C-alpha cells in the first residue's frame, strides 16, 4: 500500500468502524471538533444519549474536517462511568495526530470533565507526528493565517 490516499481511506474505515462498534455499546457519545487556532471552544458539538434515542447510538463518522476531533464514548455504571476518548487531528486532508485514552470517574462529574479536558487542549496546540511535532502555531500555514 504505497498510495497515501489509499492508506488514509483504509485507516479512516478502520477507525470509523471501531468508533461505531464502541458507540453501539455506549450510554453517551460526545463528539467535539476544535479549530487549533481557537482551542478554547469547540466549533462543533454533538451529544448522543442512548436514553433519549431509545436504542443503540448509531454514529455517522466522517473525517472530512480540518482540526482536532474528539469522541468520548461513555458507559454508565450507577454513580460511576468508564469512558474511552479518541482524538484525531486532520490538517490539509492528512491524519497528523491521533490518541486514544481511557478514564473513569463519577457520573455527575462527566460533563465537567468533557468541558475542561486538558488532554484535548494539549493535543490541539501540539503538532502531529506527520509535521515534525512542531506546535501548530509555529507551522507556516498557521503563521500565514494570522
Notable traits:
single chain; 146 residues; alpha+beta; 5 helices; 5 strands; 34% strand; globular; disordered C terminus
Major sheet description: 5 strands, antiparallel
The first-to-last residue Cα distance is: 37 Å
Alpha plus pi helix count: 5
Instruction: Tell me the overall shape.
Output: globular
Poorly predicted runs are 129-146
**Helical content band:** 25-40%
Summarize, please.
This protein is of the alpha+beta class and 146 residues long.
Q: What this model shows, in words?
A:
It is a single chain. With 146 residues, the chain is α+β, with helices and mostly antiparallel strands. Helix content is 31%, strand content 34%. The protein has 5 helices and 5 strands, in the order H-E-E-H-E-E-E-H-H-H. A 5-stranded antiparallel sheet has the order 2-1-3-4-5, sandwiched between helices. Strand 3 and strand 4 (80-91) form a beta hairpin. Residues 129-146 have low confidence and may be disordered.
Q: What's the SSE blueprint?
A:
Elements (H helix, E strand, L loop, with lengths): L3 H21 L3 E7 L9 E6 H4 L13 E11 L2 E12 L2 E13 L3 H6 L2 H8 L14 H6 L1
Antiparallel strand pairs: 1-2, 1-3, 3-4, 4-5
Amino acid at each position: 500500500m504505497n498510495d497515501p490516499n489509499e492508506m488514509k481511506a483504509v485507516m479512516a474505515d478502520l477507525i470509523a468502524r471501531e468508533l461505531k462498534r464502541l458507540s453501539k455499546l455506549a450510554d453517551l457519545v460526545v463528539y467535539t471538533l476544535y479549530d487549533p487556532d481557537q482551542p478554547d471552544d469547540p466549533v462543533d458539538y454533538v451529544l448522543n444519549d442512548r436514553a433519549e434515542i431509545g436504542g443503540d447510538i448509531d454514529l455517522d463518522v466522517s473525517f472530512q474536517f480540518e482540526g482536532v476531533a474528539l469522541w468520548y464514548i461513555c458507559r454508565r455504571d450507577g454513580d460511576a462511568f468508564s469512558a474511552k476518548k479518541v482524538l484525531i487531528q486532520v490538517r490539509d486532508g492528512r491524519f497528523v495526530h491521533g490518541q486514544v485514552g481511557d478514564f473513569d470517574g463519577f457520573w455527575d462529574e462527566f460533563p465537567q470533565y468533557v468541558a475542561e479536558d486538558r488532554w484535548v487542549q494539549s493535543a490541539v496546540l501540539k503538532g502531529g507526528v506527520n509535521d515534525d511535532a512542531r506546535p501548530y502555531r509555529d507551522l507556516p500555514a498557521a503563521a500565514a493565517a494570522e
